[in-house]
Amino acid sequence: MLYLLHGYSDEPSAWTSMGKANVILDNLIATGKAKPMIVVMPWGYGDMRMITNGWAAWRDEVLVGANFRKFAEALEQEVMPMVEKQYSISAKREDHAIAGLSMGGAETLMVGLNHVDQFAYIGAFSAGGLGSSHFEIPFPMITPASGAALQGRLKILWIACGTEDGLFTPNQTFIAWLKGNGLNPTAIQTPGMHAWMVWRGNLAAFAPLLFQDGSS
User: What digits encode the pLDDT tens for the residues 72-95?
Assistant: First the structure.
């Protein structure tokens, strides 16, 4: 199964209304290019001040950190148990993936890399909100001593960003940090800005890589 996270200023339906995720996945599955899978698109805000404060919220590092932390807690403690109760899904981590765009891309990395016991596939598209330094704070489990072992538990660590995106440089800085700590992410660079055309392409390229040795 795939948890698919939306970006800032959007809500869960954006991945279908704007991202056409349903059309992309239906076509990939129908042509045998992707495995059938359950897709869960949860509400992506841990702290609603991120919305009420508008774009200025991103200048408040404490609020941004609280937003990411509370989202991760809600996903793990509320959303995932509800999904597991209502749907017949595999309990194996090899059958669980998480991906997202922009704010959801950062949430994907924070949840996925801090919970490799739950996710074997991680895909971040134009991740926004990671900052450009001190990555050891949101990713305390990643060190030069632990990185290779973490990488060994992942089927895919896929980080994509458009080359004309304002977040391109921060994404490359984060990728370099991961490599410096023993991980080996698949770094994808495509033409394009911070836009749905890029993210639709990211999903179309990422989804066929999922669950090729497992179920859904």
Answer: 999 999 999 999 999 988 889 999
d(CA 5, CA 21): 11
43-to-5, 51, 103, 125 alpha-carbon distances in Å: 8, 12, 12, 17
In this prediction, residue 149 carries a pLDDT of 93
User: Which residues in 63-144 belong to E strands, given as ranges?
Assistant: 97-101, 121-125
Rounded to whole angstroms, the Cα distance separating 75 from 175 reads: 25
Beta carbons of 175 and 142 less than 8 angstroms apart: no
Give Cβ neighbours of residue 204 (< 8 Å, ≥ 6 apart): 24, 28
Q: Which residues contact 3 (CB under 8 A, 6 or more apart)?
A: 39, 40, 41, 42, 75, 79, 96, 97, 98, 99, 100
Cα dihedral sign, 4-6-11-13: negative
Question: What separation, in Å, do the N-terminal and C-terminal C-alpha atoms of the chain show?
Answer: 5
d(Cα 170, Cα 119) in Å, to the nearest integer?
Answer: 24
Residue 79 DSSP one-character state: I
Give me the numbers of helices (H) and strands (E) for the chain, helices first please: 9, 6
Structure tokens at 163: 């080359």
Mean pLDDT, the chain cut into blocks of 10 residues (216 residues total):
96 95 97 95 94 93 93 95 92 94 97 95 95 88 92 95 96 96 95 96 98 68
Per-residue pLDDT of 155-168, as tens digits, reads: 999 999 999 999 99
